[in-house]
Amino acid sequence: MTETVVSTRKPQPGAAVPAEPPGATTVPRRRSSGGRLRALDGLRLVAALMVAAYHYGGRDGEVAQAWGTSPQEQFPTLHPLFAYGCLGVQVFFVISGFVICMSGWGRPLTSFFASRASRLLPAYWAAVLLVTGVFALPVVAYQAVSPSDALVNLTMLQMPLGVDRVLGVCWTLWAEVRFYALFALCVVLPGADRRRVIMFCAGWMLAAVIAENAHMPLLDIVLMPEYAPFFIGGVGLYLVHRDRRDVYGWGIVAVSWLIGQHYAVQGLWHAPDPEAFSYRSSFGIVAVVTFGFVAVAAIALGLLNGVNWRWLTVAGALTYPFYLVHEHLGWVVIHALHRGLGLASGVTLALTVASMLLLAWLLNKYVEKPLTPRLRAALAKAR
């Protein structure tokens, strides 16, 4: 994978762990055990599979074209559960808050930028080119974006520019990039310390709440009120990781959970409606959000250090490329297996996930591993 950096309760200057977008978090090492926080790799894999379940069987839209009928008919029992899979993104955001705080602690801005860009871009560029090429094939039923829009997608700025997206999941990367920018300017640039991180969390949360009622689109874009609590909660959990008795850290986590569950329910709950594709109860939404916070908290407190299976490291390395390619290319595989070969829905689902994991392994081996260190070195040397 990419760099491996030492993590302790109080990191030494320069010791950091890269924070990543959904699926791209490089997991830190713990000096006390000499092993990786593999439980975090496992949690990332769980979150990625949650999102995949949502995209394949928990929503309607283009995936219904791949199946030939609504996923409600393909998975009459499971589709109500798959509908909660979209909350895997919020779990990713909590993980990112935890890891990006660790990444910025003691790291200069140039190194922070080089690490982030080199980790994000190679697999992302490959995924954009791959999906664009596959969708351009005559045998594929889905329409590719225009060549001009595909080129803009390579910048990762298609969302603010209003350009058609090649990757459906790229909206989450746009949220991550804004979080990185806020953290870099407010914490990494002046130098990370506990007081500055606490002020960052408090200031961002207060500003995000104010932005909710300001009705100013620019503030919404910068402050991301609906996602800020999850990033901030992850940052608070890193403070707890450094010192489990940190009252301010626990306070940040508690407030973030309270406000985060509010936004999740507000965005995903609706009254029972027989015409709706699926129904998510408010209790179920709160339960999944709570799972994300509790799982990262357990890792931060060292309660899951025993989850140390080596295969989780591989699984963690595949999560980011899997996250990038699974949705749109999954439609193509589902169509070929279910409608082309007539395989059963359950078999098709399992084989589609397996094929996307295989593709993710290829991207990790032949794109990320050779290009990430080269790009990082080039950016670190540039002035």
**What profile does the largest beta sheet have?**
2 strands, parallel
Instruction: Estimate the mean pLDDT confidence.
Output: 89
Oligomer: single chain
State which percent range the strand residues make up. Answer: under 5%
**How would you classify the helix and strand content by structural class?**
mainly alpha
The first-to-last residue Cα distance is 26 Å
Task: Provide a count of the helices.
Answer: 16
Q: How many beta-strand elements?
A: 2
Radius of gyration from the alpha-carbon trace, in angstroms: 20 Å
The side-by-side strand order for the widest beta sheet comes to 1-2
H/E element sequence: EEHHHHHHHHHHHHHHHH
Shape: globular
> What ranges have pLDDT less than 50 throughout 5 or more consecutive residues?
1-20, 28-35
Helix content: 55-70%
Characterization of this structure:
With 383 residues, the protein is mainly α. The protein has helices spanning 38-57, 62-67, 71-74, 79-82, 88-104, 109-135, 147-153, 158-161, 170-188, 194-214, 217-223, 228-242, 247-268, 282-300, 311-340, 345-381, and strands at residues 6-7, 29-30. Strands 1-2 form a two-stranded parallel ribbon. The longest helix is centred in the C-terminal third of the chain and has 37 residues, at 345-381. The protein is globular and about 60 Å long. Residues 1-20 and 28-35 have low confidence and may be disordered.
